[in-house]
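Deliverable D5.2: sample structural annotation.
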Amino acid sequence: MSNKLDGKNIAILAADGVEKVELEQPRDALQDAGARVELLSLKAGEIEARNHDLEPAGQFTVDRPVSEASVADYDGLVLPGGTVNPDKLRLDDTAVSFVRDFVDSGKPVAAICHGPWTLVEAGVVAGRKMTSYPSIRTDLRNAGARVVDEEVVVDGNIITSRSPKDLSAFCSALLKQLAQTPAGSAQ
């Protein structure tokens, strides 16, 4: 595989209830392209994954709590979905502040399925063209986003997709955006 992302550090922010494939597939694509990936969460230890929101799908080991992370440490951020995962994240002030600061930094932020819920809570969607899982599109509209039904949307530094069926396009857009980000943008 290409090493076009060598030297890039990417954070994935997730909590219990994360949709397994929405964490695994972007992580694997990033690692295959040479990036170093860290899983951040609300606490140390492990988070519980799900398939289709309801079926237990194992655990992922957390690399560090988001409270110990800095936007300066990373070149990009991925927000996977699953209904419960972003619902937990948006209730945590530290996670919401991290996401807001990441978007404000101008570095790539990619959110899929229900992942944009955290972007809504962070107050960073107004005026942005976005997509998401159908059930949260009203929330995006109410927060001022211009919502479309497309497999992947890139608006500035925010990348969004609708569901796991869009993972291929989502990962491609994420890799392309990160490849265009100057090397070593993480301090």
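Annotation notes: Residues 74 and 141 are 29 Å apart (CA to CA). The two ends are 26 Å apart (CA to CA).
The annotation will be released with the project's public dataset once the embargo ends.
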